[in-house]
Amino acid sequence: MMHMTFYWGKSVTILVDSWRTDSWISYLLSLIALFLASAFYQYLEDRRVRLKLLSKSNPSSVEAPLFAGSAGGRSTARIAASALFGVNAAIGYLLMLAVMSFNGGVFLATVFGLALGYHAFRSGAEEDLISLDKTCVCS
Known about the structure:
Helices cover 66% and strands 3% of the residues. By secondary structure, it is mainly α. The longest helix has 34 residues, at 24-57. It is elongated and about 50 Å long. It starts with 11 loop residues before the first strand and ends in a 6-residue tail after the last helix. Pfam families: Ctr (PF04145).
């Protein structure tokens, strides 16, 4: 039976029927996996934003070494950024569905993973990324 309110316990089904936890070890390993997936989500978001800004600001730097040999470095960068966006969106939706299991531990592991991932990968250079994205010197 699916819970419609938050509950605490080691028995939870995450995303698919085959990912069920019935012991504290499997529950803990699942929480660690969700924590790492959440941090990885923030890492990919940072890479995607940096790739997008790099391709906007200096298309020639995107061609080497990541896009070496491509005649249209700018279009290749757009395709790569779009693919990265798709992967990141898929991970985000899967994390959302995992949280919808309404298990308190799953919720906390996901939120803490997002927070730690943001702190580790995105909080330090946020001002630099925003300043690169601005096209008008007046703002």
